[in-house]
Amino acid sequence: MSQASDVSNKKSVVSAVRTGVCHRWTKSLIPTTREAPNDAETPSHILLHRAGFIRQVGAGIYDYLPLAHRVLNKIGTIVREEMDAAGATEMLMPALEPFELFDGTKRDQDYGDNLFRVKDRKGRMNALAPTHEEVITDLMKGSVTSYKQLPLNLYQVQTKFRDEARPRAGLLRCREFIMKDAYSFHMNVEGAGGLNDTYDAMYRAYTNIFTRCALDFTAVEAESGPIGGSASHEFMVNCASGEDTILKCPVSGYAANVEKCEIGERPQGTFQEPPTGEWTEVHTPNLPGIDEVGKFMGVKPERMLKTIVFSVGEGESPSIKWVIATVRGDQDVNEGKVKILSGFKKIAMADEKAARAAGFAIGYVSPKTVNSVPGTLLLIDSDASMGGFWATGADKADHHGKHFNWRRDVGAALDDSGKVKVGDLRNAKEGDPSPRSPGAKLVAARGIEVGHIFKLGTKYSDAMGFSILNAQQQKQTVIMGCYGIGVSRTMAACVEQNHDANGICWPAPIAPYHVLITLMKPDDAKQSEVAGKIACELVGKGVDVLIDDRDERAGVKFKDADLVGVPIRLTLGDKALEQGGVEYKTRKDTGKGEIVPIGEVATKCVSVING
Questions:
Q1: Would you say the C-alpha torsion 526, 528, 532, 534 has a positive or negative sign?
Q2: Which segments of the chain have a pLDDT < 70?
Q3: How far apart are CA 560 and CA 33, in angstroms?
Q4: Handedness of CA 443, 448, 453, 457 (dihedral sign)
Q5: What interhelical angle do 66-85 and 487-497 show, nearest 10?
Q6: Which of 33, 197, 481, 592 is the most exposed place for a label (fewest CB within 10 A)?
């Protein structure tokens, strides 16, 4: 595990306190197949289908067959145990949300087309819930009236819905999924019972959960996205096939996703460098991107300046209405960093029509517009502030310019901190300076997000008018946190991290069964008797057992055993039984199994499962 943690309540995978189960292959639905779906690209999508865990019902919609259901239940049990231990209480909210709950938060607009919209027979609009911030806030608003009732932390495990435009990768990006979401409520941030206390408790609980699931994971600083809030962490399963990039400092242990990652100190220009030539305009029609423009002009993207226009929300500033952010052409502006450097919380990509009306030539904007459009603040990324040759937009449609020079073309505004600021504006990348350890460089890794925790603050309680009496008998807005885990996504991420060329390799804590007993001759009385005896002993020790009693060739059974990925396989054949034992083999063993005496096999299995 990459993230250091204190797993104070880690439990054994199996014990006699819990009675295991024994099922027979022929009495379950395990439709293994050699063929993968035509659209399957990721290992989890391919293997969960081939091993008979899932079947597609529609685009991004899946049946969870018996094996998958058992895995989901085991993940859910671990989640519930750790949430309960951290002081949270389980409940259940409806999947259908009335649209009027979004009146204050406007999240129906934030989610846009990702929100499933349902009109009932009376014409009222509802949503299939993507998350439940509005529902839980409305519930608490009607149930909590005094500070004495707080803090509270409530959670549920439930199906969520998002109308993904291009559902893909099986359970990793689908339209219907199983999620644990929790919501906490507080009167203060610091101190006993405050948001910070619960946030830290949830961080520890999540660390325990993913540790108990035997996953290799990293907790990273993250942006809050459409959920909102002041701080958040993502829990990422480390995996080469992951869809998200994580940047880490190898010295300090600092880790963050690309959207959140800070960059250490970088050199900045002095704005005193001389021009490289006369400003020269170039006609650049019908060129859709900066790469095409660069090729046409004979300029590499890293020697071009890209300037993005943002609008400032009402009430933020009496004088600044626009923010323009300039980065190198080969880099991307980071909206979160624009907010930090500008000092404005309410800031968003400018509406193109409004920006054009104000005087911005969208697509061809240069830093010079800080002087031509009133109420504009110019932000410059450190890399873009350097001297040397620059090309940029020419502030008129279909035109760019060469030999831009900061001092000549922007002038005195560069010396006014109210008009120009220089700092960190772009997405971080591998090789950038670490923000936590001078001299160290950030390294990149891939991961799959399985959990996300947020400090919401008063975003939802303000929007929905949730305030109660505090200790001084004065109305105070309630402070909130929220904490999500993708349960079905965790199952898929586990497969991404734990598989080989032959199939899935389940970690014991969340495997559908711990032991697979394979009968070479299902109709043989001796083999059936021994299988029953071993299964009975294992079940009594808390072990879950699957008996492969199919009338199939040995090769088919062994291939299916590898495909399904149960941690331990016991094979009952005549040769082993003649020696008074069974063939014992773990899923990750590549060679032949070993013969273990019948009387010792249960103890050996429990020892290996508990690690």
A1: positive
A2: 1-10, 224-230
A3: 9
A4: positive
A5: 110
A6: 592
Please report the domains of the chain, with CATH numbers, ordered by start residue.
Answer: 42-216+224-230+453-496 (3.30.930.10), 280-423 (3.90.960.10), 513-609 (3.40.50.800)
Going by their DSSP bridges, the two strands 499-500 and 503-504 should be labelled as antiparallel
Read off the tokens for 594: 């070993």
How far apart CA 356 and CA 372 sit, in angstroms, is 13
Specify whether the CB–CB gap between 468 and 478 falls below 8 A.
Answer: yes
Stretch (H or E) spanning 357: helix 352-358
Q: What is the dihedral of CA 77, 80, 83, 89, to 10 degrees?
A: -170
Residue with tokens 């199952």: 491
Structure tokens at 431: 């090789």
pTM of the predicted model over 0.90: no
Strand partners, 483: 182, 453
Looking from the CA of 298 toward its CB, the CA atoms found within 13 Å total: 3
- Which residue, 136, 133, 127, is CA-closest to 161? 127
Q: What is the pLDDT of residue 309?
A: 98
In this structure, the number of other CB atoms found within 10 A of the CB of residue 129 comes to 24
Q: In this structure, which amino acid lies at residue 541?
A: K
Judge if the upstream peptide bond of residue 509 is cis by omega within 30 degrees of 0.
no
State the DSSP string of 208-236.
Answer: HHHHHTT--EEEEE---GGG--SEEEEEE
- What pLDDT was estimated at residue 5? 44
Q: Which amino acid is at 485?
A: I
Name the 3-class secondary structure at 155. strand
List pLDDT tens digits, range 273-309: 999 999 999 999 999 889 999 999 999 999 999 999 9
Residue 2: the pLDDT is 44
Q: Interior CA angle at 244 toward 240 and 245, to 5°?
A: 80
Residue indicated by tokens 């008018």 = 465
Q: What local confidence, expressed as pLDDT, does residue 12 receive?
A: 84
